[in-house]
Amino acid sequence: MRGIPKIILDRLQKLEPEASFSGVLPKIRSSSGSLYYIKLGSPSEVEQYAGEAESLKVICSAAPGLAPKLLAFEVLEDGVPLFISEYKDIGSLSSSAADVLARRLATELHSADSIPSSEKFGFKIATYCGATRLSNGIFDRWDECYSAMIGDLLSQLERRGKYEKLCRKGEVVKEEVIPKLLGKYSSNIFSSVLNGRAITGSLKVHPVVLHGDLWLAYYALQSGNAGVDKATGQPIIFDPASYYGHNEADLSIARIFGGFPQSFFDKYHECLPKSEPVGQYNLRMDLYELFHYLNHTLLFGGHYGSSAEKKMDTLIRALPTL
């Protein structure tokens, strides 16, 4: 037990009263063979730890075993957050595991049957996408929820004082594109224009649990927040920034960095078809990718701002067809 802080030992012994423990944070092993991932933060990180803890809870409730199970979260007397979850030794996501992940996302995590029918869009507490704080909130309508998410990032960019043009275009997307492209999801009937002709059809989108930041990079092994549990060979996702939203939004950053094989998207939509109107799928993905380009502009600056502006230009040009 040497080297493990007493406060952590106390919490571990509540989980396994008869066990002894060894290791160095963040990986602790019990004499039963169980592995724990443990981290102590600073008082300024309480909100971030709480967001991750609540995200893991809703993911594991909807899709058991798809993410590390949260075992304990609390704020200690000195204001320090304590987080304990299962420890997973994670390897690179193989093509076969990516297909399993796609199926589990489509049929479990993104299934409306996995959550209470009374659930609304958004999330009840703040979360962090990387280092960016997301205010979140609860919304009856998906377009209002997503407009607030985009507006949150635009406000943070505005406070930086050097993204005036980007933010002006962002306001057009927020005030004009989102209501037209996503507002149709507030009712069961949509009407639109596709290839010059009017179309109507039935439409219904339920809020489902989203990971919120599901990405892999093709240029680096184990870069991202999806992989395989080396102990089981099964896919695992981690570091979430969850909320309840339109399932397609969870595929957006997965498309940006190229780490997921095309078979992942094919399998996903084989299990869960694209939302109607299918002809606007790529526009919706442009809109959902925009969120992550704006967040990366906040985090890293550089070319992400121009990439965000290109997405906005595409969406604004499409306004007459929406």
TrEMBL record:
The transmembrane segments are none
UniProt GO MF annotations: kinase activity; protein-ribulosamine 3-kinase activity
Question: What is its EC class?
Answer: transferase
EC number(s) stated in the UniProt entry for this protein: 2.7.1.172
Q: Which InterPro entries match?
A: Fructo-/Ketosamine-3-kinase, Kinase-like_dom_sf
Which reaction is the catalytic activity of this chain? N(6)-D-ribulosyl-L-lysyl-[protein] + ATP = N(6)-(3-O-phospho-D-ribulosyl)-L-lysyl-[protein] + ADP + H(+)
Kindly state which keywords UniProt assigns to this record, in alphabetical order: Kinase, Transferase
- Stated family: Belongs to the fructosamine kinase family.
Name of the protein this chain belongs to = protein-ribulosamine 3-kinase
Organism in which the protein naturally occurs: Gymnopilus dilepis
